[in-house]
Amino acid sequence: MHEPAVPHLQAADPDIAGLVEAEARRQFEKIRLIASENYVSSAVLEATGTVLTNKYSEGYAGKRYYEGQQNVDPIETLAIERAKALFGAEHANVQPYSGSPANLAVYMAFLEPGDKVMGLALPMGGHLTHGWSVSATGKWFTPVRYEVRRDTGRVDMDEVRDLALKERPKLIWCGGTAIPRTIDFPAFAEIARETGAVLAADIAHIAGLIAGGAHPSPVGHADVITTTTHKTLRGPRGAMILSTAEHAKAIDKAVFPGLQGGPHDHTTAAIAVALKEAAEPGFAAYARQVVANAKALAAALAERGYDLISGGTDNHLVLIDLTNKGVAGKPAAQALDRAGIELNYNAVPFDPRKPFDPSGLRLGTGAITTRGLTEERMPRLAAWIDEVVRNVSDEAVLDRVAAEIRELMAAYPMPGWAPAP
Ligand code: DSN
Prior knowledge:
The protein is built from 16 helices and 15 strands. Helix 3 runs antiparallel to helix 11, helix 4 packs parallel to helix 11 and helix 5 packs across helix 10.
């Protein structure tokens, strides 16, 4: 059952309570491999459900537009100080509602409409908000896109430099949503310096790895850093912007009043809790284990003939091109979900298929590592994935794998779920 228990919700709204209960069970029983998801601690979960949700706090600590900030000011200040200490940053803003608003704030701080922005193309692993055509950032600014190399599946820094010198963007993004390899922040910084661009690092996926020392940090290289707080960082749904002191004012002004009204104070409190947890020694071990699991899973999949973009992974994320398996990403992802393995279908670089029915699968090990799974389990997990991908329409196989996975996951506790007394 959901933990903490929700008796008032059950009494007031059994429909919603029932669905919450079902979701907690679903999260407990499945192998969750969506690369952008995780399990928050019970403390983070509790913080998000507090009376802080009742409060309005437009402005910043000491300069609010509403009274009654005696407790909210110190909460937000704690979150800011913890973010700065954890990442070694000079400035932190913890108010963005999520990753896309955080990224929009960067445009608001540094660009005028129509200015040129350069980012990794979405089908190559970039993010919508790095100037993709359907996003406001691609409509209201002038996008220039770099790609990964067809032969390596990796970003080629010489190509990025040539494009930046030719196009002279005002803003360069590094980072994205489907990048299995280490991001070369110093090389991006050098290019930004040479071309006079602002460098923004979107570390949403790898923030927890950076905090735990399992991926190099962009601090000292990027002018501004955006991140969600709920992926490998293992906090609530939310976001932060880190920057040098030089850009602090512009960033704060862009978030409020530029783009947002009142911050979500219950989220701010939960971010503060997650940042405290990420500063504890156990978090570095978690971050290392996330990477070890991803490498072990990638190796086991490669052994079974899976075509991995870039040949493997340096972080939490593995991107598979299923073309050689004769099945598209969407039916494979749907069958895997039926069989207790939750991940997402994803475009792969140079994908000939459409984004809603692409060739690939994306998976990540942040959540299963929180559950306590280690490298030894990864060959079995790869075997299940393989069995399902080879039998996407065989209901008996999917049912059997789902039962085996339920049995395995019953041994790995999950914050937010307690066995019925
Ligand atoms: N939706 C996030 C992800 O899954 O990577 C990016 O916005």
